Amino acid sequence: MIGVYLVMVCLFLVFLYIPLPWIYGRVLRKMQKVKAISGNQVFLTFDDGPGNRLTPQILAVLNDNNVKATFFILGRNVVGRERILKSIVKEGHSVASHSFSHLHAWQVLPWRLISDIKKSWDLLHDVLGTEQDKFVFRPPYGKLNLLSVLFLWRQKVAIVYWTIGSLDTWAMDKRNVNHAAERIRCDGGGIVLFHDFDRAADQTDDYLLDSLKAVIKAGQDMQLAFSSIEQLHRK
After folding, report:
1. Which terminal CB of the chain, N or C, has fewer other CB atoms within 10 Å?
2. Do 63 and 88 meet the contact criterion of CB atoms below 8 Å apart?
3. Which of 102, 116, 195, 205 is catalytic?
4. SS3 assignment, position 70
5. Annotated catalytic residue 47
6. What is the pLDDT of residue 2?
7. Active-site residue among 47, 48, 168, 205?
């Protein structure tokens, strides 16, 4: 009987550690989608940068269209690209954290993940030279575990997902350059995910930039507001 209880306790703890944060993430994503749509807003977000080649091109498109975006920075990609990171802020965009090493929350020890998040915050704080020492967080792969959720809650740091993917990390034959724009027109808003790390293939740069321009046009045609991610959490 004791063995049965132990098994039940272990299963309950496992549920708390992974499935419960997964459910929380699904609910949070839905809430963020509703808020974006009800507010007639488009949130352009870029993960895994900065990239030496792609990020400046993205900034140029954003500037040409007078829209703001949020860059979820991957800490390990900042070294040697500090100037690009600073230019993101200088041009009026928001900077958030996508961790330092892009660890999968279900595959590493919890304290290693928490340390990685803090490392990314410290880097952003040091490079940008701001008083801010914590940054909005988007979990790599969209995955969290119980302890990482509790840590972020305790630090009062917002967790942000996405509601529309640009498909820019998909295989070439699976991509659709108009996918995100079509979703914006259908949903009436949302949080769009792009990736601005440098890829070997120039076709990916062209695809991402064309997809971004299509999303901007769709939003402008519908008179939607392009907002930084901070607006998502304002009441």
Report:
1. C
2. no
3. 195
4. strand
5. yes
6. 58
7. 47
